[in-house]
Design goal:
With 143 residues, this protein is an alpha+beta fold. The chain has helices spanning 3-12, 34-50, 68-83, 102-115; strands at residues 16-21, 28-32, 57-62, 87-93, 120-129, 132-139. The strands form 2 sheets. Strands 3-4-6-5 form a 4-stranded mixed sheet, covered by helices on one side.
């Protein structure tokens, strides 16, 4: 159908001629109420946006010489974040002479990953970045 005939039909029915696929050969048009179409499309997008879960990154800071109870408290906090669906960034800041012993930091990080293993998967293993050692944990995928 020619575009003049389609436009005439659309005005006759008091509707709009909307270009659906401009790159097709020949271009595809549809006779519809454009305002209603835009409203329904916005409504669908809004509904899809409601169903999205925004994943936040929560940070847990550990010390190199962390005691047992403090370690468990931080671990429980991390598990709470992970069960809530957030990712956790675990960091250790090395101060002064501690910088000479990164192996102790690696051991603390591996203990922390082991402690949180029931709720988390190690996304990025422990790695030194300047004076900090960082590790990322993400929640275990639901089955």
């Amino acid at each position: 159908m020619s575009s003049k005939d389609a436009l005439a039909k659309a005005t006759e029915k008091d509707l709009d001629l909307v270009l659906i696929a401009p790159n097709a050969k020949p271009p595809v048009c549809k006779i519809m109420d454009y305002g209603k179409f835009c409203f329904e499309q916005a409504k669908r997008e809004k509904e899809a946006k409601k169903k999205q879960k925004i994943v936040e990154i929560k940070e847990i800071r550990l010390g190199l010489s962390i005691d047992v109870h403090d370690f468990e408290t931080k671990g429980n906090q991390a598990k709470k974040f992970l069960n809530g669906g957030d990712k956790v960034k675990v960091s250790i800041r090395f101060r002064g002479r501690e910088l000479g012993h990164p192996e102790i930091g690696t051991e603390v990080m591996s203990r922390f990953a082991e402690y949180c293993s029931d709720a988390a998967v190690v996304e990025k293993p422990a790695k030194m970045e300047g004076r900090n050692m960082l590790m990322f944990l993400s929640p275990k995928p639901a089955k």
